Amino acid sequence: MADMTLANAIRNLYATDKEFSKDPRLNQEATYDVQYPTGFMDLDYHLGQRIDLYDDEGRITGGYDSIGIVDGSINMFIGRTGCGKSTIAKQVAGNIIRPFKTASIFEDSIEGGITGKRNDILLNMTPQETRNRLKMRNTHITSESFFKQIKVIHDWKVAHMEDYLYDTGLVDPCTGQHIMKLEPTVYILDSLAVIAPEDMAEASEVGGQMGQTAAAKTLARIFRALVNICKSANIILLVINHITDDVSINPMQKKKAANIYLDQGETTPGGKTPFYLSNNVFRIEDSRKTKEMEALGVTGVFADICILKSRTSIAKRDPVCTLIFEQQLGFNAMLSLLISLKNYDMIGGAGAFLYLKGFEDIKFSQKKFLGLLKENPNFYNAFIATCATVFANSLHAREEIERIDTTNMNDDIRQKIAELEEFNRAAEAELAEAEA
Predict the structure, then answer these.
(1) pLDDT digit string (tens) for 180-200?
(2) Which residue, 88, 188, 240, 257, is the most exposed by fewest CB within 10 angstroms?
(3) How many CA atoms lie within 13 A of 8 on its CB side?
(4) CA gap 151, 226 in Å, rounded
């Protein structure tokens, strides 16, 4: 016992003591995180991390790239109206659950933005598959009913764990054991901007600032409770939130951004807590470049994706990738990959004589690119393999950057860290006030 660390001593106690061994609140340890691809490869690798595996001597013996969204996490998509927030959340949800037999999507669609046939298109499912895989509500949605349904899902999955547990095929680098998880469930809240507590939803008059503050306090309590609930049952929460103008009484006075994740003059509903508890905060900014879009042969817009916050990656305000957004069909993953490879300088040529570097004998134009992928399986495989290699190399290069010595940081970086610390303190105060 003298040579045993305290952690192992407590593990041994929990394993051998009759009372402790039956108490999962104490003896159940955290399992290693698993990430689920969103279906947009460039974004997935930006969210990714390299997991190294070691032998008993501490030498690296191998590893794997863990990419996408972390199991049981809260994730937020923010942006202005019409930029594709609801669309990408629905597509991401479909891509996460598709490989699993029992995995399903639950959606609270308060705004009612996506219904009927468009659900089938975005999920890439038949109407019957959509019916089997998607449970959507668009009425009687309140903060309390939102929480209650997630709690029901959690309780059912935990009580019937044997029906949903699966071997991820991945290895925990700490224990060397295969990682077991419950199959993922995706829950979409669309949107945080309009969900309200029951007393406000049923009121004959809508309150002003005091009502908004009360709603934010209710959300703070709910989101705090959701952190453990979602993690233990592998419920991935995708939250939609709107960016609106922060109206100032004095237009000549520059007003500080309402939130560290926003620009000056912007605000979002729902308070700070949902941001504070999110694993990822994605910002979507659409731009209409008509000539460039015509060259691709589609009708739509370019959407820049920024990772404003991430617990698995480096967050920054600059876009990490650009996606092609066709409003009826959703985000086009393949055309988006073509744009990404061009940005990585892996596409050569011009006009009708573009080529994938390394496969110079196959020429194509941007308009004929999607047709070529369908007609030529060898080119399709080469294209996907090139994307995976380029993005993986970029991920590995990012992880090799040495830890920054804070003593040599410039004033701008220090200021950003100070703002983040201030934001976290404010969010913690909001949580404490909501619980009081």
Answers:
(1) 999 999 999 998 999 999 887
(2) 257
(3) 6
(4) 8
